[in-house]
TrEMBL record:
Substrate binds at V86, E87, S88, H105, E106. It comes from the Bacteria. The keyword Membrane does not apply. It comes from Paenibacillus oryzae. Coiled coil: none annotated. InterPro entries: GTP-CH-I_C/QueF (IPR043133), NADPH_dep_7-cyano-7-deazaG_red (IPR050084), QueF (IPR029500), QueF_type1 (IPR016856). Its EC number is 1.7.1.13. Pathway: tRNA modification; tRNA-queuosine biosynthesis. GO terms for molecular function: preQ1 synthase activity. Catalyzes the NADPH-dependent reduction of 7-cyano-7-deazaguanine (preQ0) to 7-aminomethyl-7-deazaguanine (preQ1). This is NADPH-dependent 7-cyano-7-deazaguanine reductase. The active site is at C64, D71.
Length: 173
């Protein structure tokens, strides 16, 4: 049986993109409160290879749960995919949904990581928030996870212990 499928400009069979509702949608709605349900995934075409996918999200905003004051950060998300990968527009909308979400910096980073683990079941993932200072102090929570019982679990432990071995030069905050 022959399927009538259309190739996308990126070389993907249109059936591979089934379930992606946000990419290319001109009528995008932005959620103003925490919305993990907006996250979408697609199939990794290179499952036999380890490689990193990295996102740099410089406009993250959430609210302090005590004062209601806004907190701003650059969020770095890196992961080694297995079968599923996060679709980037859905990730952008998901991160935007934290705009009116009140949680501490550390909680936000762990929530993001947990939601992405639930969505993708990656081999490895890390989420690092670089928050701008408020009250003269900045907070940079880092969390990671490696699939239990695999080399990625060992990798997670090693990267956690060495994640800040070479601190970056901070000149933008």
């Amino acid at each position: 049986m022959k399927h009538n499928t259309k190739q996308t400009s990126e070389g993907r069979d249109s059936r591979e993109l089934d379930g992606l509702t946000l990419l290319g949608n001109q009528g995008t709605a932005y959620a103003f409160s925490y919305a993990p349900e907006v996250l979408e995934h697609f199939e990794n075409k290179h499952q036999g290879r380890d490689y990193f996918v990295k996102f740099n999200c410089p406009e993250f905003t959430s609210l302090c749960p005590i004062t209601g004051q806004p907190d701003f950060a650059t969020i770095y998300i890196s992961y080694i995919p297995d079968v599923r990968m996060v679709e980037s527009k859905s990730l952008k909308l998901y991160l935007f949904s934290f705009r009116n979400h009140g949680d501490f910096h550390e909680d936000c980073m762990n929530i993001i990581m947990n939601d992405l683990i639930k969505l993708m079941d990656p081999r490895y993932i890390e989420v690092w928030g670089k928050f701008t200072p408020r009250g003269g102090i900045s907070i940079d929570p880092y969390c990671n996870w490696g699939r239990p019982g695999t080399k990625y679990e060992d990798m997670a432990q090693h990267r956690l212990m060495n994640h800040d071995l070479y601190p970056e030069k901070v000149d933008n905050r």
